Amino acid sequence: MTDISPKTASFGYEEIPEDEKIARVGAVFSGVAKKYDIMNDAMSGGMHRLWKDRFVRRVKPRGGERILDMAGGTGDIAFRMADSGAEITVSDINQDMLDVGLERAVKRGLNDFVWSCQNAEALSFPDRSFDAYTIAFGIRNVTHIDRALAEACRVLKHGGRFFCLEFSTTEWPGFKEIYDQYSHRLVPQIGKMIAGDEDSYRYLIESIRRFPTMPEFERMIREAGFVQTKVEPIMGGLVAIHSGWKI
Hints:
Elements: E1 8-11, E2 14-17, H1 21-32, H2 36-44, H3 47-59, E3 66-70, H4 76-81, E4 87-92, H5 95-108, E5 114-117, E6 130-136, H6 145-155, E7 156-167, H7 175-195, H8 198-210, H9 214-223, E8 227-234, E9 239-245
Parallel strand pairs: 3-4, 3-6, 4-5, 6-7
Antiparallel strand pairs: 1-2, 7-9, 8-9
Helix pairs in contact: 1-8, 2-7, 7-8
């Protein structure tokens, strides 16, 4: 007998129909777009800035390169690469996030970026368009991570490099339990106080818990076609930089 039950996808701890996830995630980020950076500071004690600095140092952007910053939303990663001379395309599935980033770019006098609304699972760019692909704190929100990774590989040139900054699970004894209590109990309350949105920040925390472990995600990156994959844990794996090369 054929199974005709609808496919589901995780939305935090909730299982929802797969075709609803894009809209549900979109509503989350539209709701928090204008307070996103303030909330990042509040939730991480400003540590996210150091993590992003470290991430861009690993990317090593160079003049003349074409770089796609996927899920680039408010421009945090692109701004850190602006002085490199690279040609940077900032993409996000959420136009509200892109609008915030574009407004910030204008205020900084950064007018050379390309801003493009894109679905990471189905990019409109031709094959072998970019020298590097970056994605920071965004891949856990896509419905099909494997499709997003395959698209990243497709749009990279031969010799192109992939870099992903994402939350994971810390392996430091004791710290994991403390962080779990902080994130589940306090972060939604911080979201309520600062952004007036408790549910969206509860989802963001739950989405971290549902994300694959560092070894599992590295395996997915290899299966997408990347080689010389590497994982660099930060704070015992609370955050990790994943990388790979397309040959």
